[in-house]
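[Protein data]
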Amino acid sequence: MSDDIKNFLHQYINLSSEIVSIFDDLVVYVEYEPNEFLTKIDEFPNDFFIIKTGIVRSYLLNENGVEATRAFFTAGDITGANSAMMRKLPSEVNYQALTKVTGYKGNFHKFLELTLEHHELSLFYIKTLENAYLKAENIILDVSTLSATERYLDLKKRIPNIDDLITQRYIASYLNISPVQLSRIRKKLMSEKLF
């Protein structure tokens, strides 16, 4: 049994060693190189992903083909085109490794079958859905109430070395500003010694 999997599961709920072993058998270790896709728009996804190391982003393309980064996922996060898998539809979102990413992937539909057989896995699934809901709600609140500078500072708290890990255009896309605006924000923060 992988300690990675045990630690990941236990951040949501304490599970018996039997259930951890069942989940461990469901997932396989994977690695992605920078810019490699975990899921692309219009694909019918089957797998969820647990990130051990690295950064993954989810992003959409607007009607003009401009990328809009929705979220960054880092160590300990679970990600994937979950809404597409739940609805058995093609993904409307790309999931892309921005750095080298290591972790685990598992078949979402097999996982759902296991939740019907094992009550503890159902409770784990509920906890992951609650967590995803709370994260989505926080993103909506942040976009609605915080300035780009405040959102950038929050992002830096969550991923302190993000500026060294990924290009500024991805950060700017996440903040819904241009790279030039991000450069100005960074310059101002440096001059105020807040950065």
User: Anything to note?
Assistant: Residues 119-145 form the longest helix (27 residues). The two ends are 42 Å apart (CA to CA). The chain has a mean pLDDT of 93.
